[in-house]
UniProtKB/TrEMBL annotation:
It comes from the Eukaryota. Residues 53-181 form the AAA+ ATPase domain. It is found in: Nucleus. One of its GO terms (molecular function) is ATP binding. SMART domains: AAA. InterPro entries: AAA+_ATPase, ATPase_AAA_core, DNA_pol3_clamp-load_cplx_C, DNA_Rep/Repair_Clamp_Loader, P-loop_NTPase, Rep_factorC_C, RFC_lid. This is Activator 1 subunit 5. GO terms for biological process: DNA repair; DNA-templated DNA replication. The keyword ATP-binding applies. Residues 1-22 are annotated as: Disordered. It comes from Frankliniella occidentalis (Western flower thrips). NCBIfam families: PRK00440.1. Its main location: nucleus.
Length: 340
């Protein structure tokens, strides 16, 4: 959680930025001290910078957990605004980063020194798990050969997609999903700055949907604020097309108490009226089922059937057929509720 002083500096910076910026960029931290989580990683990188001993870095973890913000804040701490353009090369997944770019642009940037700027340059390779193996292999020699002139920061979501030779040349840091108590202060800071009318259940819904992804939380907050006068739980779920809690309660009630035809018809009508995806319904039904006191053998049966349905949905099968499977999966549970 940021201290009061860095928070004030964020306010100044955010007010100076254009008003049409997405809130994710408008409130991106400018200093390492402004970051809201991963204290151990921030302390370590701060120590590297202060002692001028920054190694090659490898940041990995789920999206929206602060990987890019951390290295950009580090770069702004290392270089002045005038030095930044000539000392930092940032390549994203949207850029071509095949073997040609590695041997051309990256090699050229790494091998040249700037006349007026002392110290090392910084090359940031964002979404590096999208790089080909050939490009990653070509990078190995550049990292070793030009270490006295340049430092690399490789950022990825999946560590397994980075070749072992690159992993061994970097100091690795894992960025885990953010906790709700880390997200909430920054969320409320943005709400205060933007004068958003938000309810307590609306904030909880944003954090639940975000699942530790700060970027997603802010994007959904901005979308809901633009679409509705007030950010409530129902408005948040409606804005992203996610089933409401009341909808899930009704669906489970239909699955357990009504006949096949009636249940199928009601769920299809609900899906069409609210634009819901069966995959989202299935995920929420799965969470809800755990709170119902079913006999163990019924619960196991339901979970196995729902996992099979999810696998088939991901494979691209028809939602109508899988909806029929979901209703059929509840037949043993329906028989028990009828007996009771």
């Amino acid at each position: 959680m940021p201290s009061s002083t860095p928070a004030m500096s964020i306010d100044k910076d955010s007010k100076n930025k254009p008003g049409n910026l997405p809130w994710v960029e408008k409130y991106r931290p400018n200093k390492l001290d402004d970051l809201i989580s991963h204290d151990d990683i921030i302390k370590t990188i701060n120590k590297f910078i202060k002692e001028d001993q920054l190694p090659h870095l490898l940041f990995y973890g789920p999206p929206g957990t602060g990987k890019t913000s951390t290295i950009l804040a580090s770069a702004k701490q290392l270089y002045t605004p005038t030095q930044f353009p000539s000392m930092v090369l940032e390549l994203n997944a949207s850029d071509d980063r095949g073997i040609g770019i590695v041997r051309g642009q990256i090699l050229s940037f790494a091998s040249t020194r700037t006349i007026f700027n002392k110290g090392f340059k910084l090359i940031i390779l964002d979404e590096a798990d999208a790089m080909t193996n050939d490009a990653q292999n070509a990078l190995r020699r550049i990292i070793e050969k030009f270490t006295d002139n340049v430092r690399f920061c490789i950022i990825c979501n999946y560590l397994s997609k980075i070749i072992p030779a690159l992993q061994s040349r970097c100091t690795r840091f894992r960025f885990g999903p953010l906790d709700s108590n880390q997200i909430l202060p920054r969320l409320m800071h943005v709400v205060e700055q933007e004068n958003v009318d938000i309810t307590e259940d609306g904030a909880k819904a944003l954090i639940t949907l975000g699942q530790g992804d700060m970027r997603k939380v802010l994007n959904v907050l901005q979308s809901t604020h633009m679409a509705y006068a007030k950010v409530t739980e129902d408005n948040v779920y409606t804005c992203v097309g996610h089933p409401l809690k009341s909808d899930i309660v009704n669906i489970v009630k239909w699955l357990l108490n009504e006949n096949f035809t009636s249940t199928y018809k009601k769920i299809v009508e609900l899906k069409l009226a609210k634009g819901l995806a069966l995959h989202d319904i299935l995920t929420e039904v799965h969470l809800y089922v755990h709170r119902i006191e079913f006999p163990p053998e019924i619960l196991v049966h339901l979970l196995i059937k729902m996992s099979d349905i999810e696998r088939r949905l991901v494979s691209g099968t028809s939602e109508d057929i899988q909806l029929s499977s979901l209703i059929a999966a509840f037949q043993p549970a329906r028989e028990i509720s009828t007996e009771d």
